[in-house]
Amino acid sequence: MRALTWQGKRNVSVETVPDPTILEADDAIIEVTSTAICGSDLHLYEVLTPFMDAGDIIGHETMGRVVEVGPESRLTPGERVVIPFPISCGRCWMCSRGLTTQCETTQVREHGTGAALFGYSRLYGSVPGGQAEYLRVPYSSVGPIRVGEELPDHRYLFLSDILPTAWQAVRYADVGPGDRLTVYGLGPVGQFAARIGLHLGAEVTAVDPVPERRALAARYGARVFDVQDDVNDEIRDATEGRGPDAVIDAVGMEAHGSPAAHFAHQALGLLPDALGRKLLETGGVDRLAALHAAVDLVRRGGTISLSGVYGGQADPMPMLSLFDKQIQLRMGQCNVTSWTEELLPLVEDPADPLGTEDLVTHRVPLEQAPEAYDMFQKKLDGCIKVVLDPVAP
């Protein structure tokens, strides 16, 4: 089959690799019909390279059709399914509490991390990902989400990651009608978070440096701001000087405006992999401009919800401000299937209230994935969300 493989820092290529096969009784193989590039894929492309191996198949936002199943799978060939990015058993203590990203069966104990993830480095199990023609799905009776035939892939695909990630971020922010929510970062997760906040009745402001992203969020009713020195003051002025009830950081470890950490990330990529892994696991730092801005902005007694991925173990945090302002922090990988029951009716609503068909700016053949990664990282050509089509010639 053809698959997108990681070859080095900012270097991915589409190669011919062996087809996946059934390895366990509850495995399934799907033929991929759509697979998206996620903002967190760019961390593999740029920062987490010491945990990658040449030839790794990446990608964790995937849907397609079942083509083969193991003897214990409850799926049937021909079914159309969305594949959540965490791999979980559905039976352990954590899974029984809805914490599928902490699955005790698939935890990657070698690195002290949570559940294995599709296509996401040694840190999360080095499981082949979905930016490929075919994907092996472990625990196929638990994770895959069966979907209907009538609607296009774009309606369903984002149930794999970014839509429930945004939903969880807003739920963790604990906002509802009349509350004030600010979203930092208007990439795909930030776009959905802003729309979900508005859908739930909150007043939403959002901050991003890219005009196209601000324009898209504004179209759904968010009040948008460019990144500038006084942006927090502007938002506070609109909230009686207090700040919003909650702030969602949808940016993560590669935020703009963190020059020292940016330099550290660049230097890390020059180190031998073994040394780079050790430094990341014990002394890595993130670009924290967005998170520190969120701490400054949120009102006293408010909540910060982190959906952007962070990976540093030595990040400096403003503990005085966090404690003094009595700020609540909620965060973590998304427990995708915990939110499916709430999200599926919205996805299938003819009105498409969350705009699932109004997010993809580029759909390109899988063979063009290397160019798409470069475009997405550099935010060229108005790129907000890319979907790769393995079926296209």
UniProtKB/TrEMBL annotation:
Pfam families in alphabetical order: ADH_N, ADH_zinc_N
Keywords noted in UniProt: Metal-binding, Oxidoreductase, Zinc
GO molecular function: oxidoreductase activity; zinc ion binding
Sequence ranges assigned to domain Alcohol dehydrogenase-like C-terminal in this UniProt record: 188-254
Domain called Alcohol dehydrogenase-like N-terminal: residue spans: 25-145
Coiled coil: none
KW Repeat (keyword) present: no
Ligase among keywords: no
Required cofactor names: Zn(2+)
PROSITE patterns: ADH_ZINC
Similarity section: Belongs to the zinc-containing alcohol dehydrogenase family.
Protein name: Glutathione-dependent formaldehyde dehydrogenase
